[in-house]
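We read letters as residues; the fold follows as tokens. Both lines appear below.
***
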Amino acid sequence: MRRLRELVGVATGGLTARKIRTALIMLGPILGVAAIVAAIGINESSKGHLKAKLQELGTDLIVVNASTGMGFGQDPVIEASAVARVKRLPDVAAVTGTRQLSDIVTVPFAGSEDYYRAFPVPVIASGLDLPDTLEVPMISGRFLNEYDRDSGARVAVIGRDLADEYGYLAGEPRTIELNGLQYGVVGVLDWVLLEPSMDSAVFVTFTSAVDDWELDDPDPSRLYVRAPTDTALVAQEIPTVVSLGGPDGANASVPTDLLDAQSQVDESLNNLTKMMGGLALVVGGVGIANVMSISVIQRSSEIGIRRALGHSRGTIAVQFLFEALVVGVFGGIIGALVGAGVVWGVAEQRGYTMVLSVADLAGWALVSVGVAVVAGLYPSSKAARLEPLETLRLG
């Protein structure tokens, strides 16, 4: 036990006596572990965020866009009658169409004409089932209804971000000016995960768009389709149903596929980061071996004296291995904490929930210890082979 305490004291003294050298030796394990832990944590946090998005969006939503083939030199649209045809498909639960209108100047409040002319607010003609199809709630008021559509009433629903900017209060009678016409605001739509642009948009009925802005027809340019079962099959059938078997008049996609693709890209980038972290660990190990080998030469007098006092080769070797072990332990712990800090910072900045297990932190800290011990084998064996007389020449 006395020998062990003496060994620990000598090894610790050797590290603390040369603080800058010890810090440089630790830098490799710190950077390597930090990079790997950060890559794992960011990847897992990103996956958790994407899974939450998928759960909110649902895996059964299909987006159908009009193709250029139906535009005939104008903006491509989908015939309004196609909405009913799509809705009759066996696995379709809900369908709604939208069309973004152009050249509509929105003035939420007096005196803001110049600003909103430079930064226009999207105005969208919408079907009545948009909240149900997208599964997005109203945070106040109501959405457009059949009376609004049939009567051509000048009413509008606004997105949540626009309501916040507009200073709209729930239940407050307010109007919004669209190309000089006053529209009453009847409701506020909550955030739309699939279409963030809708958060700052104004929604009106197709009837109002045709009557007030001479829209040629009430045809949508995009459909949102909710198909709880056989979603992929329905997505394949929709273009044929829309174009009545003719040339493709629309293309259908499942947005969750895009999120999955995004997840795969993020994972590939994080795998690359892990490889770079692993490389940093290896380089750190080489650095440990190199610096400790130089340290053996610098401390040859100390080694010679200890050998002359009767310390065995094994004791000398264990001393240097213990120094490498300490470097690995502290480098691994500091690196794991730095990596966790990076994950926390990125999660906060991106609005993710931080996902990082203690097992990952402990596991990669142990890998750092292993790399450091392996790197310390050569310098420790080199120190153990030194004879007392040889240390006089080196010292």
